[in-house]
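INFO batch 0412 | record 1 of 1 | parsing
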Amino acid sequence: MSKKTGFVLLSVISGILFGGAFAGNKLYDYAIKPRQRTDEDPDSSELVTRGRRWVRNHESKRDIYISSIDSLRLHASYIPGNDGEHHYVVLIHGIWDSSEGMGIYAQEYARKGWNILLPDLRGFGQSEGDYIGYGHDDRYDIIEWIYWIIKRDKDARILLHGTSMGAATTLLVTGESLPENVVCAISDSSYTSVKDEFEEVYEGLDKKIAAIPRWLAIPLLRFEVKVRAGYDIYKIRPIDAVKNSKTPTLFLHGDADEFVKPHMCRELFDAAACKKEFCMTLGAKHIEGVWIDSKKYWKKVDDFLSHNNF
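INFO prediction complete | emitting tokens
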């Protein structure tokens, strides 16, 4: 090989490595770095905004803090139910939001008189954390919150109700060994796996972010996440977790969801080993079912809870 040829080859390899590192860093910043929601960020529905205000201004709300297994300070809002009430719901929010975004759901459970726990997932709201885990670490954080409930009420009967990334976290939790106090779970618009979800949405990203082909981008992001956050995005697979679940689960989705495709809900439902129910809301985009057809949404939830003696 001549010196000129070697120089050209070295330049090409260097360019590929530099370009890959740059692309991986840009993808990491977009997909893995938490961004806090502000009051200027619009909600998809006025009902969500009202629920957010309801949580923020609730006169009985208490701020609760615990430590994660890796020593992060985690926050949740706790709204007590009726005196002597042993029903609890843990409401688990999605990406780019905080626990306040689950107020639209909290209002309904408050009407039932239940105790309500609204955790901020790590990196969001008042919880510490500098990366998004997509359920990887969050599952263990939620289990810590479950034991926080049980320590204060050994007779607690707990429902997990998550949306989007929070739904995936819910399913990942049900794949773990859980105390009998966890009676049911509701998954609203979960993805089957992080890898599948990233591949689904990548083509729709702005070309400034999605500047390289998908077959190269996702492995680059995987490498970047392993190095900087310490976990493997390919191993976050709710579809595997539900195969080990013993927790009765309601799977909800909107048939017009373009962010987490509806086929993922069906695949999760089919794979689940637990007692299960399924509901698709016509005309609902991503996590819109609760306000597009709230009557149908809450009737399905109530029927599911009744079927499981909750």
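INFO post-check: Residues 3-20 have pLDDT under 50 and may be disordered.
INFO record closed
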